[in-house]
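JOB MANIFEST
job_type = single_chain_structure
chain_count = 1
residues = 502
[input]
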Amino acid sequence: MGRISKILIANRGEIALRIMRTCRVLKIPSVAIYSVADRGSAHVAYADEAYCIGPARSVDSYLNLDRIMAAIHESGADAVHPGYGFLSERAEFAQACTERGVIFIGPSAAAIGAMGDKMLARQLMQTHNVPVVPGTDGAVTDLDEALEIADRIGYPVLAKAAAGGGGKGMRKVHSAQEMEQALNRAQGEAGSAFGDARIFIEKYLETPRHVEFQVLADAHGSCVHLFERECSIQRRHQKLIEEAPAACMTEELRARMGAAAVRAAQACNYVGAGTIEFLVDKAGNFYFMEMNTRLQVEHPVTEYITGLDLVAEQIRIAEGKAIPFTQDALTINGHAIECRIYAEDPATNFIPSPGTVTFHQVPVGVGVRVDAGLQTEGDIPIHYDPMISKVITWGLTREEATQRMIFALEDYHIAGVKTTRGFCRRVMECAAWQEARLSTHFVDEHPELLAEEFALPTEAAAMAAVLLQEQRTASPLTGGSAWRSRRRKGGILPGNDFATDV
């Protein structure tokens, strides 16, 4: 491996833009891919080249391996960054790139496969002395076996998809009477979502915290962790708010969990950036949950507290370079928080609110970062994840980062769709957050935070922004827009006509 000369980003939206910005800093040309629905998207304008790969449906575009490989060939890219979601954790994508002599900026297909199968990952962790939640080592084959296991480890238990993730194919079981129906539903959902209906059983932890460790590993045998993030505030087992470091962490627990995270990565000969996710109970016991073999949505909070550019580190590792620092050289600087701003209505169980964002003005200031897929306006298509942006703040203390987040969310103006902005601000202001009383049940335990979100009309949002601007002194650090569009090569791939969105 040598220096990468051109990177195709096999993704869309804010993560595609995030990767392209690092490419520009490293002076590496970037290639965008896009569906018909994303023809006018910011990531398409920002890239050096862009190729249309299909209709709006992700199965016909961002999940279409053949069309993405054709775009790689047509563009002449010698490396691919998968971002997160879509094909980022598909072993066959990594393998296809390798077979064609294209650098996959991520782990090997073997590592992705090992960690993608939850049962195999669980077995692997046990052989490397990484604690796992009590449960089965293999798939349950019938109802009687599931009942016997549940009786042994005690109710409540979880029936979980072996190939699952994101809360799909997962059912909580409180008693033997619920087991049959829970198994059937979990198997059906797992088969539909992943094409794999295998289910395993594990103990349900009542009020755990979700704490994950970022790891980096190179091809020379070095592996370090970049400390932890807490991601306990979730809806439907998907994260809403993250912070680093975790408020529940002690130096002793961090040392033990960090060492376990490194062992977990080394267990599958991991190379690249990855995340080891744990559940932590009230007694401070921690258990391996899964490994995400890609960049995480919440990686900016780790970048803030370490001063590292994780995308740049991924690229350097993919070029065959060694990690240039040791574990002892890494330190935590301050505290960072990330709020995900989704086009969703918290009052209606976070139902997506797709549509057109008619006004979009992001906050600025010291210790404030916004990763967004939009400029001043744009569409949130029904076909994809409804995340609009991520607001990240940093402070010397958790309290300072929280206060900056409150002000940043107040300064954030969005019109046209309902969003989670107001919910996130209410969380920042509530006593449970400020006292760090968190668990994965936080949203259910605080229904008072789920007020109805109103989709402001464009005029109201613009007026609010003007009034706020008049009330405050502009920051000297606030500059012009960082957006710019280059002339670029690219277009619709030869031999394909996607002019009609189907």
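[summary]
The mean pLDDT is 91.
DSSP finds 16 helices and 23 strands in the chain.
exit_status = 0
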